[in-house]
TrEMBL record:
Biological source species: Streptomyces chattanoogensis
Region Disordered, residue ranges: 90-112
Protein name (Swiss-Prot/TrEMBL): Restriction endonuclease type IV Mrr domain-containing protein
Amino acid sequence: MADSVPVRCPTCRRENAFTPPTFPCACGAPLTMPVLRGGVPVEILHRTWQASWVEVRCEACGRQDQWPAPESGCVCGTVVRIPVVAAPAAPPGVPDSGPPAAREPAAPGPRPAVLRPAFRPVTIRTARDCVTAAAQYLKWLGFTDVVRTQERAAAGVDLRGTGVVAQVDPSTRSTRLREIECVWLNGLNDSAIAVFFSLAGYARDARARADALHLPLFVMDLTGTPQPVNDPADELIKYGATGR
């Protein structure tokens, strides 16, 4: 795990410990965001696609690629973007992923919304019921081969299917940022869409990161009916598995 660095909130001046996230490079090596020590964090007031990504070079293979810009949330509610060490120019013969715009999905043409029968919820009484309800919901969305995983404790994934991975948080606390990043990385590794279901909702920084990563978030009530809480979730409901 990367060492934490102090980050001072520009709003309340509180100093928070921040651990730089680590992502898997295409070469398989772990790539930890090279946070600029002493850099001044910038409060996020308006999000843009380009500002949400930073260019970082893998020390193992030299590949230069675009990764989610590291962010940190303060207890006062402020969310800041943490500056990183700028990537040097790519040397000859080293692959370069291109500008951030190359990672942005092309605007899709008009797509018809998927017509499906009403969802039949599963009443939630236990943590296991939460996972069952989420599995039924994903099948309703068109991921028909979704199954419960056995390695959830190690991998951070409760459900897998063709083109989808999902995590379910049945606890009574808000889902945290690290859990969002974990399921997103699982989706990245599997070339699948990552989806999150939470019983108690999401911490502010977790919600912000999911929006930046275009990761669908749902909250569940005790009736077992997931409700979308961000635009990616709305899109998933509208187009289902066939629209991904």
